[in-house]
Amino acid sequence: MLLSGGLVLVGIIVALSMSLYCLLIAAMWRHRKSSCYKTFFYRTLWNESFLDLFCFIFFLTTMYTRCFDGAVQFFLSMNRFQMWTKFVQISQEHIMYMQIMTVVLTLGGRLLSVCFPLKKLSNILEKLERWQIFILQAFLPTVIVFPLYFMFDFQYGLKGITKPLLLSTLDPRYDKYIFGAGLSYRVSAFILCLFGYATIFWKVRRKTNDRKRNDLNILIHAGCLLLALGAVLFASVCRRFQIGESFALMRLFFFTTMLWIPCTNVIVTLCAIASLRQHALHPFTDQVVTSVIPSIKNER
């Protein structure tokens, strides 16, 4: 009963998050000629919005539907297509690594604009096109997961003699590889975000007049993203060592790992960026209230 209710809640959250992302994309497209939407931050956010929409669609079609009895035979029949099962399993990791890379890139852009305003490097970032930013988002995650296509085979199967339907491999090296690569990747991102946002918070607190507003924005960004990264990291450790698998709530937590960052990101974006929130939620108004955390120039 708890698991069924949780699945309904997950479906509602995914549908709501997809709707919010569609509003964000529409707002950025409608105001694409505005100078504030031609920055590295917004180009990254544009790419991230489409990546997260793909994540939701991927989750609904390849994972969420596996929870229903009527879909069991269909997914078991997909074992005939080896490349499909490889793509589905490996893409789960690929998507999550790209999500984390995007968080790190966004943090790096803010650090450069707020704390280390190096003119040459900032100019390079601001001139990057969306496709170039996409390469930055995808390159390292692709390098990590690409060897998996040649190393492992995957199959759908029932856990024991009952549901849930799982997609896994019998090769024990896979869990070790994924855990080792994922742990180092996620821990590095978590530490970078922790110290990066602490540095931004300290810098803005010292240099700006509108401290309360900027402090709140940074705390929202930092708190939500660190919460999401921490949840993903915690889930990977629990899954590797099979902690709490007997509890329905923990199984639901494992199942939704790839949703934490995109759902958190859309909430953070709408809460912390008033101008984008106004354009997304009030599409027929043109007034711009504010933008992202402002750049702070070095004192002469």
TrEMBL record:
UniProt cross-references to Gene3D superfamilies, sorted A to Z: Rhodopsin 7-helix transmembrane proteins
Matches recorded under SUPFAM superfamilies: Family A G protein-coupled receptor-like
Q: Transmembrane region positions? A: 6-29, 50-76, 96-119, 131-152, 183-204, 216-237, 249-274
> What keywords does the record list, in alphabetical order?
Membrane, Transmembrane, Transmembrane helix
Instruction: State the InterPro entries in the record.
Output: 7TM_GPCR_serpentine_rcpt_Srv
Name of the protein in question? Serpentine receptor class gamma
Per the UniProt record, the source organism is Cylicocyclus nassatus (Nematode worm)
What taxonomic classification does the UniProt entry list for its organism? Eukaryota, Metazoa, Ecdysozoa, Nematoda, Chromadorea
